[in-house]
Design goal:
Blueprint lengths: L1 H45 L6 H4 L13 H32 L4 H15 L2 H16 L4 H25 L3 H9 L4 H12 L1 H16 L3 H6 L17 H9 L4 H28 L7
């Protein structure tokens, strides 16, 4: 009798395991299928728009042929680059503070609470906030205002990722460094941060990938500029806003350039991730 019950229980477990594997595999296949579908449509439409002119000519006037996205590419590079340059050290050092110094303090709890709110807040809200404190106050749209909005989006991502990665570092590494007489700041920077280097870099890349495609905050801050402009104190063209405007237009040339711009952003994020994995992977062998 007991043997029959064990056999029945074993068969039920086998069926439950098979059902779980089947549903998990189906969900994974569905997600991959949708991703491949998006990439196929993007590459099939975007490759037709990619040529040398897209990087050497500015956005065309309505109803005209030709043109490119030079001004938008430059604007995106400047704003995203400045945002990443500011957000990376702030996010990393804030994550170190939350993990190594103020783990149980009220300041850390408040910081985590505010960070969670910023992570879940719609990007358009951040754009309106920057518009109120920078654009409306200073009296004009600018690339600096756009970078400020992107920075506010990127900092929470870097901060939380850095905190989570540092918490995965074994406590024995810290204890060994303290036993050798190393100060806490030295342990934080040279031991724990170095051990979590790959995860922290991944968080930085995730933040860059997120802000690279943000449109709503830039509509309220940097606006757009049809002409080539490298002065970030003035309105500045950028790829997300240009893609939004061109994709909604009735002009075939603009729609073609919108597909090309979307492909450029996708390729930029892909290349950035590949380079980071190649140059920042752990080299423990040898």
């Amino acid at each position: 009798m007991k043997t029959e019950l064990n056999i029945a229980l074993y068969r039920r477990r086998q069926l439950a395991n098979a059902w779980g594997m089947a549903t998990s595999t189906g969900a994974m296949a569905l997600g991959l299928a949708v991703l491949v579908w998006i990439l196929v449509v993007l590459f099939s439409n975007g490759l037709a728009a990619i040529d040398w002119n897209i990087l050497t000519q500015d956005t065309p006037a309505p109803g005209t042929e030709g043109g490119g996205l030079r001004n938008a590419v430059l604007g995106s590079l400047l704003m995203v680059g400045l945002a990443a340059f500011v957000a990376t050290p702030i996010g990393i050092f804030a994550g170190i503070y939350l993990t190594e110094y103020g783990d149980q303090s009220k300041t850390a709890e408040l910081t985590r609470f505010v960070t969670d709110i910023m992570l879940s807040a719609p990007s358009i809200v951040i754009g309106l906030f920057v518009y109120a404190i920078a654009v409306a106050t200073l009296g004009g749209f600018s690339g600096y205002a756009g970078s400020l909005a992107l920075t506010l989006i990127a900092v929470p991502v870097v901060m939380r990722t850095t905190e989570n990665m540092l918490r995965l570092v074994p406590g024995s590494l810290r204890e060994a460094a303290f036993a050798l007489g190393a100060p806490r700041w030295k342990v934080s920077l040279s031991v724990t941060l170095r051990a979590a280097k790959s995860g922290v870099i991944t968080g930085v890349l995730l933040s860059i990938a997120r802000i690279s495609g943000e449109t709503a905050p830039l509509l309220f801050t940097a606006l757009n500029n049809q002409f080539f402009n490298s002065d970030m104190s003035k309105p500045m063209a950028n790829l997300p806003v240009v893609i939004f405007q061109f994709a909604m237009s009735p002009y075939e040339n603009w729609i073609r350039l919108a597909w090309g711009g979307a492909l450029l952003i996708t390729l930029a994020v892909l290349i950035l991730n590949i380079l980071a994995r190649v140059f920042f992977r752990d080299r423990r062998s040898g």
